[in-house]
Amino acid sequence: MSTREAAIARRTRETDISLKLLVDGSGQSSISTGVGFADHMLDLMCFWGGFDLELECKGDLEIDSHHTLEDIALCLGQALSEALGDRKGINRVGFAKVPMDEALAEVVIDLSGRPYLMFDDELLPAVIAGDEKDVWREFFKSFALRAGMNLHIKLEYGRNGHHLLEAVFKALGMALGHAVVLGREGVSSTKGSIDR
Fold this sequence. Notes:
The protein is an alpha+beta fold. The chain has helices at 36-49, 66-84, 134-147, 161-179, and strands spanning 5-11, 15-22, 29-32, 52-59, 93-100, 103-110, 116-119, 127-128, 131-132, 150-157. The strands form three sheets. The protein has a four-stranded mixed sheet with strand order 1-2-4-3, covered by helices on one side. A four-stranded mixed sheet has the order 5-6-10-7. A two-stranded antiparallel ribbon has the order 8-9. Strand 3, helix 1 and strand 4 form a beta-alpha-beta unit. The radius of gyration is 16 Å and the shape is globular.
């Protein structure tokens, strides 16, 4: 089996990103985005998904974290898509439901090649770790777009923004970890191909 990995470099006037993703890893990560909360969330996703990730980003944080999180998600999604290649043999679908203290989140994904995001963030407080909650919608939207992933995130209940997003990122990691498992013959599609 070939190694499922990808390296992405992206430099704009807003961000400078280098990223290496190993799908069949051990959950090890080295992440430096300049946004401590994002580092924590991505570390959780990698640990619970079994992915190895090296990520460094220098962004225009003097403005806010929007460009940084959006561009990281674009690079991460691109890396996942490139690492999976033609997606033959993968489970394709994954799901997980994870509690974090008073919060409960469910994530369901389909690595179908067709990007779509369903995310009702009504339960999230307006500001989490100093950032508007909207930056996380942009993160998930950009990740789903570049990964070619149908991504549904449901916040069942909870009050604390940190707990809610921590449950989401753990569930996202677990769902992705299940979806990328190789265990089928050919492509997981009755039509014989996955849209790319």
